[in-house]
Design a protein that fits this description.
Number of domains: 1
Strand content: 35-45%
Order of helices and strands: HEEEEEE
Shape: globular
Helix content: 10-25%
Number of strands: 6
Number of helices: 1
Length: about 90
Amino acid sequence: MPVADGSGPEFDTSELVTWLNDAVLMAPAMLLGTRTAWGAASEDSFWVSVTDAGRTVRAEVFVDGEGRPRDFRTEDRFADLPGGLVRAP
């Protein structure tokens, strides 16, 4: 049973940000390369971006007191709503 069916740049961007989220949480070694950029965002967070096929997505990753990811936030995701695709956090 399909949950969603679509294609195009907005779907590609959403899929890439899903990949980034999965890599941060489950396989951070996948982010060690030239396609990835990192930076400090706040005392308890950092930003990370990844580029693939000319498309770049970025997210802020919040960490707990031991440095483990506890939240992932991005504006690079689209929701397929009845009125059309909209950028959504």
